[in-house]
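Hi team, as promised in this morning's meeting, here are the two structures we talked about. I've kept the exact order from the run log so nobody has to guess. The first one is mostly here for context; it's the second one we should focus on when we meet again. Sequence first, then the predicted structure tokens.
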Amino acid sequence: MKVNVGIIDRTVRAVIGLILIAYAIPVGFPNTGWNWVGWIGIVPLVTAVIGYCPAYSLFGFSSCATSAHQH
């Protein structure tokens, strides 16, 4: 599995993932009945941690600065 998510992309994904998970718990967000939707934040959080996005791979896209950083 090649890394195809760059550092800025990973940071943004991690922040969005954590915010969505906080919404699901809910931490600082009102309980709306739709808070369960926040659990989708696991997806961007996992892709940020592992540095690989299956959708990017499917479309041949990479947000890495250079291919020299890929494993």
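And here is the second protein, the one for discussion:
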Amino acid sequence: MSDISVENYKKSVAKIIDTWAKEMDKCGKALAPILDQLAELEAVKSPDADTKKQIDELRKKEDAIQQHIDSASASLRVNMMVIDVPPQADEKELMKVPGWLKDIIKAKGIPLGKGVSIAPAIDFDFKKKKLKSFGIKVTFP
């Protein structure tokens, strides 16, 4: 039988990650057409002034979405660091938490477009029953 305090912790974490995944989904849907248009425009061998202007505008939109992704990921990190692991939690159950976190993030992971990837970075202190660090790495092409 699993530890109820660990199960409640997992439910809280799942809710936080679900909120983040929804934001990533919005960003992914907004970013995909921008990356497609950029690829088309950058494929032009001798772009005219209008094409260069469109490329600049698309880069600005891409940067704005990147900032939103960074903000949502920072919020996720803060929320994950603030939520406390129950001190009375069974250590055997806690040993499963880092793997579970990676799995849930992968399950909630959203494809953000060409070449964009998301990877979790988790460090857990089992003696203190505390999440030492949590991060999301978003890689752009």
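Starting points for discussion:
The first strand starts at residue 117 and ends at 125.
Helices lie at 4-42, 49-82, 91-94, 97-108.
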